[in-house]
């Protein structure tokens, strides 16, 4: 008969939970209809740090929209390969539970105020919306 110490039991339990965590996370993700909204901004005055700071201020305020599950404000990374686009000034990456939640965000007063107060700063905006593929 193998004698199990408390220490071995706790270690094995911890290892088992780490090993099964990805399986449970994958199942949880499948259950959700994750909607991703990624916006890229090109400023009218690309060399203006004041304009960039103002846009960042507006995006910070925009994170208060309750339908947003997660938000990330980004600046171009210093990576440099032929497939990398770095001409934008700021990116705005949002995650929603569904398309319906993103549509509520689009008409939310905070979002409408953001467009009204900050759209004069950008020259161009490109949006990439995506959903996960249906499997099985």
From TrEMBL:
Domain Stress-response A/B barrel: 35-130
Keywords annotated in UniProt: Signal
Signal peptide limits: 1-25
Domain of life the protein comes from: Bacteria
Keyword Membrane set for record: no
Gene3D superfamilies with a match to the protein in the record: 3.30.70.100
The name this protein goes by in its record: Dabb family protein
Species whose genome carries this gene: Emticicia soli
């Amino acid at each position: 008969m193998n004698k199990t110490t408390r220490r071995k039991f706790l270690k094995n339990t911890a290892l088992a939970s780490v090993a099964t965590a990805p399986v449970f996370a994958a199942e949880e993700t499948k259950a959700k209809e994750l909607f991703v909204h990624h916006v890229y901004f090109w400023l009218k005055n690309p060399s203006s740090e004041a304009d960039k700071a103002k846009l960042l201020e507006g995006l910070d305020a925009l994170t208060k929209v309750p339908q947003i599950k997660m938000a990330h404000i980004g600046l171009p990374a210093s990576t440099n390969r032929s497939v990398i686009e770095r001409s934008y000034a700021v990116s705005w990456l949002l995650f929603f539970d569904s398309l319906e939640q993103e549509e509520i965000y689009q008409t939310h007063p905070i979002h409408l105020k953001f467009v009204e107060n900050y759209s004069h700063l950008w020259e161009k905006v490109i949006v990439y919306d995506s959903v996960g593929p249906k499997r099985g």
